[in-house]
Amino acid sequence: MVKPNNTILEIMSYFGDIFKGIKTLLTGMSVTGKYFMTSHKGAITQQYPDNRDTLKMFDRFRGEVVMPHNEINEHRCTGCQKCELACPNGSIEIIWDRQVDPETGKKKKMIDKHIYHLGMCTMCGLCIEACPTDAILWAQNYENSVYNRSALTKVLNQPGSKLMPGVED
Amino acid sequence: MNISLNITKTFTELLSGFLPESTANIGAMVIIALIYLAIFSVAGLFLVLIERKVAAWFQLRLGPNRVGPWGLLQTMADALKLVSKELTGTVKADKFLYNLAPYFVIVSSLMALSVFPFTQNFQAFDINIGLFFLIAISSIGVIGILLGGWASNNKFALIGAMRSGVQTISYEISVGLSLLTMVLITGSLQLSEIVEVQKNGWLIVQGHIPAIFAFMIYMIAGTAETNRAPFDMVEAESELGAGFHTEYSGMKFAYFFLAEFINMFIIAAIAATVFFGGWLSPFGITDSIPWLGVFWFLAKTMTLVFLMMWFRWTFPRLRVDQLLTLEWKYLLPLNLLNIILMALIVWLNLTIQF
Fold first, then answer.
1. Do A45 and B61 touch (CB under 8 A)?
2. Residue B73 gets which letter from DSSP?
3. Do B62 and A43 count as a contact with CB atoms less than 8 A apart?
4. Residue A155: inside a domain, yes or no?
């Protein structure tokens, strides 16, 4: 036996549900309606080959790993190999040797070549997180297709470059 | 312009000038059928284009804009591509039913178009049971969907087709009852009569509260009947691939696709005719120029089509049980109450007449 009081409550909640449903549907429609009305102000679509000259990728876009150099051809890589260890699929290979530091006269670890295989890179970014001296960064270039796979193997440090003083301190 | 808008009569008279009467009648029918086919296959393609453009604008995209000016020829190019494609089929498909299914769908939706009054006397087929004919014809399409799903011998297609059957049988009741609510005011099923009645105010104004309820119920049920989102479980991509037309390719697929959009036009056109006065202009501003009726009819229809697209790009898809709950526990009882309310209003002469 259902009390009559309960029946009234049930009927109330039945119609309440309907009004709530209509209200939420109208809320949703107003949201999409606003998007529709403002769509002419600027679509997010990039018409890529047409705007090739002006197209700029967002800061967080992961194009490829680069090593920035300053004007006098100095980088921040100490050759600690943490990025090489951090890379899950072996895209980074560092060739180094011990050379005599001209300032202190002591033998010291220096990089010869920081080799980066873009073709194997999955853009996980672990190398950049692992780098203690911020020597490598993400670049935002996106036209990375080439005709020959060997073009994807890159040496990140420029020829003749050396470590920026003060990075190791 | 002095051309008679009564196209059937015009063509019959034109042909009977040099043909015997029966041949002239048949000739006129064939000519009108060809005209309607040509117009609406192109109109269906442009509805697809409008859908894609509207979808793009809702999602802050640009939409098709490469083929022709502003992408106007995109869907034409798509149709051309589909015509040139091979008609593949599955080995274990029931060949006869498999090939028959698309024609059921497209023919039923094209047949429904014949009874609409586009403007005064501009109507191919003015029968006295017009609205009943429309409801009947628009539910025949589901046979094509069921046949297609069954004959494909594919589990996704079969599930999709069965869902479509469930959906159309349920929502057909709501469509019929909500239109019946309006027939209580007009007292006629003939579409030209229904428009005539609305010269004293559109039915949504004449019938005020129950008419607005009936319109809302009609739009929900109509959206469900065309198998469009949020009721598109028939071809729920995430679950069923393409649903009942998974195994179809080329022009047979295009028939299903085109029929979906023509059905959307039909549902919107019925709503425009029954609730918003068909080809009548608002406040009778252009009643002296009957040709403009086509413009008003299409304007009202396209507004309602836009409403349905708005639904599609806003609401998430319902589950099957939610769909049936909506119909049997909400729409149907409310609809029956609404009919009683409308009957009372008509009986007590509470309709608003200008």
1. yes
2. T
3. yes
4. yes
